Amino acid sequence: MERPRTPRTDPHGGLAVPHPDRRSLLRGGLAMGASAAAALTGGLWAGSGPADAAAAVDYPGATWAPASTANYTAANRPTTYPINLVVIHVTQETFADTIALFQDPSHAACAHYVVRSADGHIDQCVREHDVAWHAGNWDYNTRSIGIEHEGYVDDPSWFTTDMYHASAALTAEICDKYGIPKDREHIIGHVEVPGTDHTDPGPNWDWVRYIRDVNGG
Ligand SMILES: [Zn+2]
Questions:
Q1: How many whole angstroms from 51 Cα to the centroid of ligand 1?
Q2: Closest CA to 158 of 197, 186, 200
Q3: Which of 64, 91, 181, 203 has the greatest count of CB atoms below 10 A from its CB?
C-alpha cells in the first residue's frame, strides 16, 4: 500500500531528537498555519482516493487523518521491528491544531493516534506498520505505537472519562494484536522514554485508572 519513498538525506533526522517543546510548537503552529493549509490544498494526497482512506485505518473506531509522509518512516512492522510498547502523550495543543501539525511536512513529528478530549473521538494519522516519530528516541519509535491525548499536562479537566475510555479501548486492542502485556512496563508515558525532555502525560494523568481500563476493569 505504501508508495515508494525517496530515502531521506538524513534518515534519522528528527528521530533521535525530542520533538520541540510544545510551547514553541504552539508559536510555530500559529505562524505556519497558512503554509500548512496551502500544502493541504496543494494536493499532497491527490493519489489517495476515498477507498484508500477508508482502507487505511487499523483501529475500526478511528477516522483516517493522514500525517505528512515527511513526518514518519515507512516500515513493515511488526516484521521489520517488533512492537512491544505503547507510549502515552498529551498534546499541549487542541485536537485540530495537533492534526494540522502532523500534516505539516516541516513538523518532523507525529503519532499514530490522537484522542479528542470532549468525546473520545480518535483520528489515526500513521499506519501501525509505519514508524511514527513521537518518542524522540529512534529505538523507542521503532517498537512502539504512539497515542496523543488532547489536553494540557497542568489542566486535568482535559482528561475526560470519554477520553480515558476510548484511549484504553484502543490500547487494549493494540496490546491484544501484538501480544503486549497490559502493564506499566509496556504502556509508558513519553516522560519515561530515555533521553526525553518531555513531561507528558504529566502528574494529572491517572495511570491507575488507565491501566485498569485497559484491562477491562
Ligand atoms: Zn509526548
A1: 31
A2: 200
A3: 91
Q: How far is the CA of 64 from the centre of ligand 1 (A)?
A: 21
Residue 79 burial class via C-beta count within 10 angstroms: exposed 0-12, middle 13-18, buried 19 and up: exposed
Count the Cβ atoms, other than its own, within 10 Å of residue 212: 14
Cα→Cα distances 212→18, 166, 186, 202, 206, Å: 29, 13, 14, 18, 10
Q: How far is the CA of 19 from the centre of ligand 1 (A)?
A: 8
User: How are strands ordered across the β-sheet holding 144-149?
Assistant: 63-64, 122-124, 113-115, 144-149, 85-90, 187-189
Do the strands 113-115 and 144-149 form a parallel or antiparallel pair, or are they unpaired?
parallel
Distance separating alpha carbons of residues 166 and 68, to the nearest angstrom: 25
Structure pTM? 0.77
Distance between Cα 200 and ligand 1 center (Å): 5
* Domains of the chain by start residue, with CATH: 22-214 (3.40.80.10)
The mean pLDDT of 19-25, rounded to a whole number, is: 43
What is the C-alpha R_g of the chain?
16
